Amino acid sequence: MTQTNRLKIFYVAPAQAQTYITINEGFRQFDRFAQINVLARDVEAEPSDPENGVAYILPANATGDHWGEAKKNALAFYDQGWQIIEPQEGFQLWVESEKIALVFSGEDWIDLPVSKAKKLGVNSEPDNINRLSVKSDAELLTHDDVTPGTGDARKIINKRSAEHTASVVFQNAYQGRTELGLMGEDAFAIKTSSNGSDFNTSFRLSAEENVIELFHPLKINHSEVLSNADKPVFVANIASANTSYADNSLIDLSASLDTHNAFDSSKQAFVVPASGIYFIQVGIVIRSVSSNVTIVRLRAFKNDTLGQPVSAVTADANITTVNDSSLLQLQAGDEITLRTTFNDANGAVKFFPSSRLLIYRVA
Known about the structure:
Blueprint: H1 19-33, E1 37-38, E2 55-57, E3 75-78, E4 82-85, E5 92-95, E6 100-104, E7 109-111, E8 120-122, E9 132-134, E10 165-172, E11 175-183, E12 188-192, E13 200-206, E14 211-214, E15 218-220, E16 223-225, E17 233-238, E18 244-245, E19 253-258, E20 263-264, E21 269-271, E22 276-288, E23 295-302, E24 309-314, E25 320-330, E26 335-342, E27 349-351, E28 356-361
Parallel strand pairs: 1-5, 8-9
Antiparallel strand pairs: 2-3, 3-4, 5-6, 6-7, 10-11, 11-12, 12-13, 13-14, 15-16, 17-19, 17-28, 18-27, 20-21, 21-26, 22-25, 22-27, 22-28, 23-24, 23-26
């Protein structure tokens, strides 16, 4: 009597007696293979009193009168007795104890491959926003050594246009704390937040300008490094070579570089924009227009109070050049001016336009 090729169901022979036996056995075989549902795949001992209709995938070390003789990965069906069936490649089933679907590869039961899915959750429930959801202590993304690949491992996050966002967000208790990526533009930025809703930019790298911007103090070995926002620079020259300056005269300046718009021309004063230690350098080209003048000092005044001298030079009818510098502790809002002081109160000097004042914050 012949059988079907795959499930080995007996055909009814012509003029066969008790055909219902053959037909009923075929129904039983269909019942076993249609929508296969097994209880588990890790039960080793053959149950002594199973219910009709239960099924198992047998492990390698299965024991019992029927299970002990079966091969690993065989299907054990109970229907008024155990039926042991070797699976064929492509068989699919559901494992009740694990809530997973498996397919037989020809050698082993493996997770059912998914080539396309609208949602996917790993130990988690996805939703319409987070269509891929994973709950795991760690995830591994590595290079392809199976196909094999090139050895590279490039992960791509693509956005539709410049004004959209392609970023990675790090959270604490589902509240954002740090976001990095291309956020609303094509500049790479890092933003931080203390409450999960208000984010402040800490770092920005512009691809077009090739410029790095820091929005918070930078520290190296626990020492603060000044950012551009905290490091004002001011450069000025003597406004006119024709101006004669007497004792205690306020020097007229012409700013050539003022990164923080800190120069008040009405007061001829550099108004300190940020507290710190400032380096002040003066390069003087000077000559006396009075024989009475001997020693000339150019002093930096803070808030109209006599400060530390930053240069001292003997002035006579000849042109004299001297460079000097000083470090001053300044507070935001302090006004820095330059004035002349003479050893001899009577007399006057002139400064050439190449004379220069430089101020910048160093700490």
